[in-house]
Amino acid sequence: MSENGRHSPLILVVDDDSTQRALLRRALENDGFQVEEVADGAHVVHVVRRVMPDILLLDVVLPHVDGFTICAKIREDEWSKNIPVVMLTGLEDTASIQRAYQAGATDFITKPVNWQILNQRLQYIQRASENTWKLLRSEARLAHAQRISNLGSWEIDLGGTVTHMSDETREVFRLTEEEVTLETLSRSIHPEDLQLISDARSRALTAGDPYEIHYRLLWSDDSVSFIHEQAEVKLNRDGKPAGIVGTIQDVSERRRLEQKLEHLAYNDLLTGLPNRRSFKAALEHALKPAHSPGGGAVLYLDLDRFKRVNDSFGHSSGDELLRLVASRLTKCVRHNPTDDRGTSRSEDMVARIGGDEFIILLSNIQNTEEASGVAERVLKNVSFPFNINGAELFVSCSMGLILFSDESDAESLLVKADNALYHAKDMGRNNYQFYTEDLNERDQDRYEIENDLRHAMPRGELELFYQPLVSLVNEQITGVEALIRWNHPQRGLVLPGRFIPVAEENGLILPMGEWTLQEACAQAASWIEAQIGPLRLSVNLSARQFLDSNLVIKVANAVMGAGLDPSYLELELTESVLMEDTGASQTQLANLKDLGVRIAIDDFGTGYSSLSYLQRFPLDRIKIDRSFVRDLIQNSTEASIVTAIIAMAHELRLEVVAEGVETEEQYEYLRAEGCDVVQGYRIAQPMPPDRLEAMWRGRNENVPAEPGPADQFERSA
Ligand code: C2E
Ligand code: CA
Ligand code: CA
Known about the structure:
Elements: E1 10-14, H1 18-30, E2 34-38, H2 44-51, E3 55-59, H3 67-76, E4 85-89, H4 94-102, E5 107-110, H5 115-149, E6 152-157, E7 162-165, H6 167-173, H7 182-188, H8 194-207, E8 211-218, E9 224-235, E10 241-250, H9 252-266, H10 276-287, E11 296-303, H11 306-313, H12 315-334, E12 349-354, E13 357-363, H13 368-383, E14 386-388, E15 391-393, E16 397-403, H14 410-426, E17 432-434, H15 441-456, E18 462-471, E19 477-488, E20 492-494, H16 496-506, H17 509-529, E21 536-540, H18 543-547, H19 551-562, E22 569-574, H20 575-579, H21 582-595, E23 598-604, H22 611-614, E24 621-624, H23 626-630, H24 636-651, E25 655-658, H25 664-672, E26 677-678, H26 689-699, E27 713-714
Parallel strand pairs: 1-2, 1-3, 3-4, 4-5, 16-17, 19-21, 21-22, 22-23, 23-24, 24-25, 25-26
Antiparallel strand pairs: 2-27, 6-7, 6-10, 8-9, 9-10, 11-13, 11-16, 12-13, 14-15, 18-19, 18-26, 19-20
Helix pairs in contact: 9-24, 11-12, 12-13, 15-16, 17-19, 19-21
């Protein structure tokens, strides 16, 4: 197999002379090569990107641009720079041969072509090129591994004398060459960890066990480094232990990032309260009868007219207000006077679930009176003025409540509490309402959506928009994300946030998702055909689709039906989808990868957030959720999280996309932090395919403004 997965190597022949092309084709096909031809030099770089030949056979003399120029261009192109280029030259003067090499040619062959030699040369180049690819890959891996790991090596003999120590190891221990002894080394080790190390080493020497341990180094300023050490016994010629050889690695940075991301997974950074994820976990726990014998309630709270505070006093005042509200709410539940049964109320939890919305889990609440008691207390406490930067600010809040007994499923409890909150807002704000069955106007709306959605596909009301993804390396559009739209006959354009959840619930997402895959792949293939791109196509998959046992077949059908190379397709999954059931998701992912498609994690940061956890999946990139990007500039916490995510992802060799990039500042920040790709209104909104085409033409360079005449590129049979 060749580098590009083909069974016989593909040669792209560039020659303006049609007789010469025909001759070359016949000879090469005879020798078992596949052949593609281009007559005109103007589009070669583009065609090369498209077909990714194993070798390019390039005539020096061409009508519009000469072969040297083309060769040089190929060497500059990120996608094709490693493809071997063989120049065909009729001029046997050393000057043009030299020029060919200067332009980056791999080899040259003189015209008239000696067919025997041509075959041998190409075979040879093809083999050499395969080896180069392998080498490039392993070199890149090795360099990367060394760079990221800071692996240091060392050896000690039986007497404890240090017999070898690499520079990296010395740097970790902050010693100069003269200072290195076992004693100076031990000096930096955290006293509590000394025993652990000496135990591991003596076990290694007595029982021959290799070991792997983590320990700490303690510095004079009380700072700590975290060390990962692996070692084994070194044997002498007689097979007796002669000492210990090992490696060490300073993993402090990774540790720090991990802790930060873990914290981020469960907490709201602004207020320090638990986030929605923690809250749901606590609620699900509380809903198990054994855990809350006394019953409980959910209280959903929203500050009234918070936007006005933000607009008139600025974001930082808004943030400060949220922090103060958080602390008052926490106090409200801790000293709850309704707790007269003397039971511990430790299960209470106040969480911030976004913007100005908070949610409180009340345990040991048996009836509406008890719940009202808490709500009254909250209303009163929030009504006292807040002192922000010397100014007194008055706010109020609205709340929706529901008792556990009305619903036993966490998700529906939240939806119903939210419904009740909505009602409280309708009732003029600054009050609270309990959920009642007739509060289901919103359910009514949902019902209509669901009904109409059944007809949407057959009636052709669904449509795909595409949003460009731009590389921060060269600022070119390198991909698009397909985003579904619904042209509703009465409601107009309906966004997916409105109908995807409904479709997921009733299963319509399966046929809909299949349609999306087919439609998007066909679009991507037709763009490639029209020489637009190469564009990577991202398609969203919902949880239900991912769990579908026929998913792989559906994806395969979509790419093959469209004639699209699967490597152009990237499927976007959210973290929660992967978290559901690891066994099955591992297999599903492995099968998708075997098919050749790429996998991205969508909305990264909103779910579990442990990149180390995600490491077990074969991922290609992660997309940082737009909530982090949104607050990047105003909020240094968000900024440092984004920085940490980028660093961590790169360490795991994942590409990073930032979503929702709206401003120049965000764009520049992300570029400076080494983010790879951005997507967002700063570049463009999602748009119909024809507008995307126009935008691509206007933006990406070295591409003809009009598609070239059809005969410039002929596909071989
Ligand atoms: P997503 O996958 O996170 O897609 C990105 C969403 O962010 C899109 O919303 C896009 O219009 C919006 N967006 C892009 N740039 C910006 C920006 O700079 N600022 C802001 N505020 N928003 C930006 P859209 O199209 O409404 O889609 C919403 C969600 O619906 C998507 O979120 C995705 O989860 C889901 N979705 C869309 N199409 C499909 C589909 O075909 N299948 C499935 N399963 N889900 C889809
Ligand atoms: Ca997405
Ligand atoms: Ca997303």
